[in-house]
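Contributing new records

If you add data, match the layout below exactly. Sequence lines come first and carry their own label; structure lines follow with theirs. Keep one chain per record. Anything else will be rejected by the validation script.
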Amino acid sequence: MAATITLTVDVRERTGTGGARAARNAGLVPAILYGGPRGPVPITLKLNEVSKAIKSGKFLAHLVEIDYKGERQPVIPRDVQYHPVTETPLHIDLYRVEEHQLIKIAVPVRFLHADTCPGVKRGGTLNVVRHDVEIWAPADEIPDHLEIDLAAAEIGAALRWSDVRSNAKIEPVIKDRDFVIATIASRGGPQGGDATETPATA
């Protein structure tokens, strides 16, 4: 799947605090473009385009395109800094990638039927060991999230990587074991799972 978001960029001549402030006053977002033989390049993005991209829910850690005077380049946004009050984006880190390049990235896990699974109905608790899982994925096929269906999960169940509904093209970074992602524990304490992985109640 090719990038669906395109952002217009320009090279930022002024760097430092003063340059960043001037860019923001002009309705731009300061950014740094990393990766590739040219090294880090200070750039600016248009605030309205960035805000629209963020609201789409497919910006951070997804493949997008930047357009510099007609020259397009696929990139991955890895970090966005926001204003603490207005939540306006203040700075963005972008990384150059090839469209089908394998990327190591943390993806959130969603649990289906968490409130209606047999274990929870019988008084158990969903204890999440890993809210995110690091995976290898093609840059143009990074999933929004991973899914585990709890429809049949009983008290004592340990939900592992093998329970994840996933695209065959993605692989976990951890490959030496079928690691635990969550457990269904009794109210009296956790059951199932690996002793070396401590769950946190979701």
